[in-house]
Amino acid sequence: MAEKTVTFKDTIDDSLPTPLYHQLYVLIREKIFSGVYANAVLIPTEKELEKMFDVSRITVKRALDELAKEGLVSRQRGRGTTVTFTNPVSHSSGNMAGLIEDMQNIAKETTVTILEFDYIKAPPQAVDALKLEPAAIVQKAIRVRHKDDTPFSYVITYLPEEIGRSFKYEELEAQPILALIERSGIAISRARQTITATLADSVTGSTLRVNIGSPLIKVTRIVYDTTDKPVEYITIYYRPDLYQLNLDLSRMKGLQSNFWTAIP
Question: CATH 1.10.10.10: does it fit domain 20-83?
Answer without folding.
Answer: yes
